[in-house]
């Protein structure tokens, strides 16, 4: 029986889930994988406030050095999140010859490159399945499951909070703030949900996926990021009538040596499988060569879903005696790949204007769009009930982002148009 | 640079796809994985009829021993299918110290147990990703991606031919035989499609998945198997109006130490993600503990999809210098698990009777069902156009299979009922 000693840093929701899971599956893991995981030390800055009963064999501390300098610990599990002191913990653990498992998306998105290199230099494993989509094996699928494939594109619903809110708004015809309250009530949104709602959580995860799929360490600031707080129920309803569903998508595409990366609310056809990924479920949709379209979905958040990813990492890591080539392959970078800014990208748009219901208004709006080289594929004017402003919905052809911005700015200043026009990107998924 | 010598046995559609893919991705694989794959020998009984131009460095033969006894070959790829001589090839290759990759579902379904044991004894890898769902990483996901999870159930659409036919019948309102002709025309059905259509292909794949997920080597004959050739367009249409979709599902569930395994046409809610897996796409839906529901889908057939799985196996296999514990875990069996026969299983049913439209007919039918302890959840009598027999659709509650069979037999003999009643199982997926 192989025995692996673990030092766990961060005993919060996920950390305690990992301990619970290791206890529950102890015999199964011993029988099937011939390995016994021993939790030697748990470090948490408020360990004394936490319930540690039933963990008699484990040492508790608030001092990370008691984990990092303990020669008997083989694997450090970092679950505190954020950059500081997580960066120091992971770096020191690898330098001290320990394997590392982390679920820290912001750390890997910003310092993954040097950490993967350090792990390869030191001949140690660095596993991170739970950093994207919790226990859904997205990382393993890209790295190993379909190894040998290259990628044309990837499309992810990788923030459960946003997906829950958008599903709720669609299903219950409620506003963003009502859906957010419901998410908080059910424990699907943190007390400060800013990083989820403004898209940054998805951006961090997208940066990791781009590195795995395209071999490019993209800067967070090079990923165009737009959150969901400006989405109104009206637009969801108009979109539904056009057979479109709204999702916060993390998108990366590679075309002719260039990569585009963006996170924003996106309208997709209701017939595409991603459109039926609802609630807190996450999904990743890969356009792989030669395999074609691959979809992977599951619960992308929650204590036990995240713990599942960490325990899978532990089993996979401990099942390899040498550091396999796949770990080293993480250091493979495609240095020729250029990043495109959002202004260089062309997408189709859903536009909504609130305009007066008078002859000539449509021609004014389409005239300005035409001047900026924006073609319209369809126009729908919604039924009005003597309202002074009625919604006009237009779907554009592929449009340069910059042109559109300038045109919308001009249209907004027309006296016949009320309030800021709404513009939501559309994506045609195969 | 690591160099791995390959002996390929079976140079048909998939075999030539593997060679094509290795050539196309040669530089990518070298750069990223530090490995060069050299195809030393290709063996095929009709090699002389095949196009082997552009493969100058490779030796061609019709004699399997030129692969099996060549000490310089590290990995044997077996792609001939069937039991004989595939069983001998895989066995001898492992005995001669070679790693093996196979896509042979019928071999693994029937002799997997001894082959996995032989591989473990000999310290060699036996990889088989393409045996189920071609390159969709179903095998890796269960074995590694979510290692540490146990399973309550698995539900697979794992035969592309059947899924294409059922999709075609639904979409184009055509008959089974029309849809089958279309499948043949498009190359989605073999000239003899018997094993696809009668469900046996799915049964072989299900046996492999059951072993991976539940650690039980189930006998093929213990898996209840029913094909799709008796499905009529009428039933698809009636089901649609009840918000149900029809799929050939491979189902395995574990409850209280017992396992049930079956392959049959199944009605599922149109709202479930599996219902939107159409055409030649395959999908597997896992009910995992603690991860919850996981869905994996993609193209489950075709030259390059299958080649993708073989090449992923090659990369994964060659990336590990020692035989990892995960390979050995394939020999872990749960000997306490009992298999249930179809007669011991309870399912809900969709029933269709063609009955005369006269008072008292419904009560006769429901009377017989009641006598056999079969509860009805809903009855729909379809509109009639002066036809002498009209369809009566009933959805039952959970029903013992044996009771239902006896009841249907009695009902069929009623003078007011025309032809054999139709019974299709329904499955409630969470």
Here the CATH topology of the largest domain in chain A equals: Dihydrodipicolinate Reductase, domain 2
Strand content of chain A: 25-35%
Shape of chain A: elongated
**Major protein interface:** A-B, 61 and 61 residues
What oligomeric state do the depicted chains represent? homodimer
Number of domains of chain A: 3
Helix content of chain A: 25-40%
- What composes the largest sheet of chain A? 12 strands, mixed
Helical stretch tally of chain A: 15
Structural class of chain A: alpha/beta
**CATH homologous superfamily of the largest domain in chain A, by name?**
Dihydrodipicolinate Reductase, domain 2
Features:
homodimer, 430 residues, alpha/beta, Rossmann fold, Dihydrodipicolinate Reductase, domain 2, Alpha-Beta Plaits, 3 domains, twelve-stranded mixed sheet, six-stranded parallel sheet, 15 helices, 18 strands, 36% helix, elongated
């Amino acid at each position: 029986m192989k025995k692996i000693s673990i030092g766990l840093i961060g005993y919060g929701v996920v950390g305690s889930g990992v301990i619970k899971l290791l206890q529950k599956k102890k015999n199964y893991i011993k029988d099937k994988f011939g390995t016994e995981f021993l939790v030697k030390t748990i470090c948490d800055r408020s360990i004394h406030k936490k319930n540690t009963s039933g963990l008699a064999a484990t040492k508790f501390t608030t001092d990370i050095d008691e984990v990092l300098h303990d020669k008997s610990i083989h694997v450090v599990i970092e679950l505190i999140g954020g950059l500081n002191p997580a960066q120091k913990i992971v770096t020191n653990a690898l330098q001290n010859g320990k394997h590392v498992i982390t679920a820290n998306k912001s750390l890997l998105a910003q310092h993954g490159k040097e950490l993967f290199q350090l792990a390869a230099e030191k001949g140690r494993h660095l596993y991170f399945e739970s950093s994207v989509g919790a226990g859904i094996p997205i990382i393993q699928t890209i790295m190993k499951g379909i190894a040998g494939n290259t990628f044309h594109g990837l499309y992810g619903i990788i923030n459960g909070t946003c997906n829950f809110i958008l599903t709720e708004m669609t299903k219950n015809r409620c506003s963003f703030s009502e859906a957010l309250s419901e998410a908080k009530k059910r424990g699907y949104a943190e007390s400060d949900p800013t990083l989820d709602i403004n898209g940054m959580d998805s951006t961090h995860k997208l940066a990791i996926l781009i590195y795995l799929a395209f071999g490019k360490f993209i800067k967070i600031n090079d990923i165009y990021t737009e959150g969901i707080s400006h989405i109104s129920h009206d637009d969801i309803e108009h979109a539904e009538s056009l057979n479109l569903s709204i999702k916060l998508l993390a998108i990366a595409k590679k075309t002719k040596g260039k990569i585009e990366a963006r996170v924003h609310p996106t309208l997709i056809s209701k017939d595409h499988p991603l459109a039926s990924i609802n609630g807190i479920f996450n999904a990743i949709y890969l356009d792989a060569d030669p395999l074609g379209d691959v979809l992977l979905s599951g619960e992308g958040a929650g204590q036990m879903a995240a713990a599942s990813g960490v325990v899978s990492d532990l089993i996979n890591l401990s099942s390899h005696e040498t550091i396999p080539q796949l770990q080293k392959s993480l250091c493979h970078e495609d240095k020729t790949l250029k990043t495109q800014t959002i202004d260089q990208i062309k997408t189709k748009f859903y536009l909504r204007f609130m305009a007066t219901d008078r002859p000539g208004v449509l021609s004014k709006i389409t005239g300005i769009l035409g001047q900026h080289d924006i073609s319209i594929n369809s126009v729908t004017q919604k039924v009005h009930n003597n309202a002074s402003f009625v919604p006009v919905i237009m779907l554009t052809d592929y449009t340069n982002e910059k042109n559109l911005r300038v045109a919308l700015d001009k249209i907004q200043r027309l006296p016949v148009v009320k309030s800021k026009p709404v513009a939501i990107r559309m994506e045609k998924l195969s």
